[in-house]
Amino acid sequence: MLPAEALTAHRGATLAQRLTVTVKPGYHVNSDRPKDEYIIPLKLTWTSGPLDAKTTVYPKAEEIQVNGQALTVFTGTFPIQTEFQVEPNATPGTVTVNGKLKYQACNNEMCLRPVTIDIPLQVTIQ
Amino acid sequence: MPPVEAQVRATKDRKAAPDFSLKDENGKTVKLSDYRGKVVLLNFWATWCGPCKVEIPWFIEFEQQYKDKGFAVLGVAMDDEGWQAVKPYLTERKVNYRILLGDDSVTQLYGGVDSLPTTFVIDKDGRIASAHVGLVGKNEYAGEIQALLKGGQETAAAGRGPLSSADSLLASAAK
Q1: Which residues of B fall within a CB distance of 8 Å from A71?
Q2: Domain range spanning residue B83?
Q3: B85 touches chain A (CB under 8 A)
Q4: Domain count, chain B
Q5: Which CATH number goes with the domain that contains B143?
Q6: Which value does ipTM take for this structure?
Q7: Closest Cα of chain A to B17: distance in Å?
Q8: Has residue B115 been placed in a domain?
Q9: Residue B164 has pLDDT above 90, yes or no
Q10: CA angle, B61 as apex, B55 and B67 as ends, to 5°?
Q11: Is a pLDDT exceeding 80 seen at residue A100?
């Protein structure tokens, strides 16, 4: 996974941050909207602070069949884009916005246990 | 069902299955050693695991077919959400074998169990006769169970290949 790059933003502005995720060949991660209620979706969340995550956009998922089960998944390299709103009265300076990416990966024969990783994003507010 | 070569390892090469205590859905504490004298298929799984879902109907069938012959399936669910996630799943799929809620202290005993399903077939003396990481064919399991119930372990072990990943993990954990 590529780390989120440092950003510069103005108070009151919106800004988009793209996170690039790469899945190991042979594996897939569940999409953000799996068909089966028991399947753990991919989910990127951000803690609130001077930047408020307004929307998170995931790519269109692939539909695959594994062992007779229809799945919606992501494979290879794909982006997740978040749009932030900077508070109009935010204090100028550098802040860290903390994101968490939860995912659960499988191949055709086995699944790995779900993982949550931290995504620290440095933003300089002007 | 077509005959298959059982892949259980020779009796002399088997290691003791680490004992553990976990609770079933009724809150009863169950120990693996309670099953001594039976052949046990110990399956680590989770509700979110697709390949595990494929195996469950097989295990239901094995439980029905071999229960009265000294066999039991023991499922260890690794769902972080606990019984809240697991109980409805068991009801929906009419699971007829005992399920326990797993934790990391037990998976450490079995080498970590990073991948699901991970399954150990344990002989009547509580020793690991085979270990499988990932989805395995129904006939392979059936052959192993039948071989162990017959007690023909030495003959059945003839075709055993290199250690599987689960074996290697268990070996590492034992050091």
Answers
A1: 50
A2: 11-15+36-173
A3: yes
A4: 1
A5: 3.40.30.10
A6: 0.88
A7: 22
A8: yes
A9: no
A10: 120
A11: yes
